[in-house]
Design brief:
Helix content is about 35%, strand content about 15%. The chain is of the alpha+beta class and about 250 residues long. The chain has one domain. The protein contains nine helices and seven strands; from the N terminus they run αβααβααβββααββαα. InterPro entries: TrwC.
Length: about 250
């Protein structure tokens, strides 16, 4: 029998599993105060239509409602039926390694930078490209950003380094009439467009790292990322066996 599709509540629970959050890696004895690793993203106009506010933390109850296409308070249908797009913004391996060696306060700066830069990536994707019927860009969007610091938790996979990545769940875009509509799938999965937006987000992330006092090394050619953080041993970055288990366990929510 075919595997059953997860419910909206199951998907929300998997995405917001605290064992995936950066706080799951807080060193023993360090300040373990809880801080948000999730935000709702979009304009006031777009988010108001589903009962949300920009920059607030993503709660399981609200995420379940939005995944179901409903207003988070009234339960009324407000979002178009169709696919929810998970566009993952992944940090360079060297940045994830650096993050794992820093104190919690310094980690928080990197976490904030990743959320901000993934929001920028998503904004530019919808504002600069024809996500409305494949013809024109959108006025805004409704999206949730969830930062994870781990790939897979399978004990059988051996040693697994923390891997920082942001799940950018794009639910709808706001068209010129002020209506929420499903974004154009072909545009969202256009490799050239995705590469442009990822590069834009990474450029902003590199600038943030420099601002935080870290040196970066631009990469070229067929490198997966446009930069790496200086000081991380190259032999560690080249250890493919170490990094092969970092595929996120919730990357495929279908």
């Amino acid at each position: 029998m075919p595997e059953e599709m997860p419910t909206a509540a199951e998907t929300a629970a998997r995405l917001l599993d605290p064992s995936f959050s950066p706080q799951a890696f807080t060193p023993q004895g360090a300040d373990s105060s809880v801080r948000a690793n999730t935000i709702w993203h979009g304009s006031f106009e777009a988010l108001k239509k589903v009962g949300l506010r920009q920059g607030t933390a993503v709660r399981a109850r609200d995420l379940t409602a939005v995944l179901s296409g409903r207003h988070v308070r009234t339960g009324a249908p407000v979002l178009p039926a169709g696919e929810v797009f998970d566009l993952t913004f992944k940090a360079p391996n060297s940045l994830s390694f650096l993050w794992s060696r820093l104190a919690p306060s310094q980690r928080a700066d990197i976490e904030d930078a990743l959320l901000d830069c993934s929001a920028l990536m998503l904004t530019r994707l919808t504002a600069d490209h024809p996500v409305i019927n494949g013809i024109r860009p959108a006025r805004s969007l409704v999206a949730s950003l969830v930062l994870h610091a781990v790939g897979t938790l399978s004990a059988a996979d051996g040693k697994i380094p923390p891997m920082l990545h942001v799940h950018c769940f794009l639910f709808a875009v706001l068209d010129e009439t002020g209506a929420l509509t499903q974004p154009d799938e072909a545009t969202l999965y256009d490799e050239e467009i995705l590469t442009q937006c990822d590069t834009l987000g990474e450029e902003a992330l590199a600038q943030r790292m420099v601002g935080l006092g870290h040196s970066i090394i631009p990469t070229a050619g067929n490198a997966e990322h446009s930069f790496e953080v200086a000081g991380v041993p190259q032999e560690l970055l080249d250890d493919h066996e170490l990094w092969q288990n970092t595929g996120c366990a919730v990357a495929s929510l279908d």
